[in-house]
């Protein structure tokens, strides 16, 4: 009962969520260059930067009016090999989050550093510089002031596509009360659908655990959860309200305006459905239950368990990533990742110590 109460507190906690970066009402804030705004709305593959695109980089800067896709389009053009030495890298650094390791060097000198150039020359970053086509893969996902956008790039029309995922965060513009999207991280060549299908599946919650969660959400003890209440719970976990409403409608399979235990249980059984709101919600709840079951452990025990799981010989593939995800806070976007995707982050040089410590 105690662990279920902890889970309920996590689920029903109020989480501030912004479906998009707030727009600044001041008249002096300009719209983004039209070329990037048009590109962000087009679903067809895009070719290399035109002269107009490259010229627009000279004045391109973060602004409250810019949406995540416009930021990503600007970054892709800025990093393209044709714009190196002509202000492209400087434009890219203007859109990088202030917390990024290379942003401080840029703010001091106004120019990109040699270490930033070396960073971009890493083999797994080559596709960001050498692309000749890119495309949008899916809609932008918004979670608690963060935006995720999947893209693919390739070096020629007959080359293989390389997956590139962008993480953007909404940063407040000092003294304005508005926010703007900036790039927090870029992940190149994540697993494709076939690889994700091979991930060790997560076991769904047992029926007693599901009933305990359902009872916590059935506040009036009517034997059903109202759609309004369900939407509030889902939205509090960081899902856009429109997505939460769509999930409530899909969960109420008989359309009677109430979510029964059977319908709620069916939703939680979708824990291994990748790239769906139902799967994300089911995984979030499932991981939350299992993490709170370990809440009695000390912080030292939790850290030790995760570090050993990441380093030691695993009992099965992706075991370390699975353990790390299980101990993520339910409000941490990493809690919604698959072990295969989480494992790709560990390939980044600055994470190597987590798997190689002695």
Give the SSE map:
Layout: H1 2-12, H2 34-40, H3 51-56, H4 68-79, H5 88-94, H6 103-109, H7 114-120, H8 126-129, E1 133-136, E2 141-143, E3 146-154, E4 162-172, E5 179-188, H9 193-197, H10 207-217, E6 224-225, H11 227-236, H12 241-251, E7 259-260, H13 261-268, H14 277-293, H15 299-311, H16 319-326, H17 339-345, H18 352-356
Shape: globular
Radius of gyration: 22 Å
| Order of secondary-structure elements | HHHHHHHHEEEEEHHEHHEHHHHHH
Helix coverage percent: 40-55%
How many helical stretches? 18
Task: Classify the secondary structure makeup into a structural class.
Answer: alpha+beta
End-to-end Cα distance, whole Å, is 39 Å
Uncertain parts? 1-32, 191-199
The total of beta strands comes to 7
- Mean model confidence by pLDDT: 79
The largest β sheet comes out as: 5 strands, antiparallel
Strand content: 5-15%
Task: From the structure above, extract its key features.
alpha+beta, disordered N terminus, 7 strands
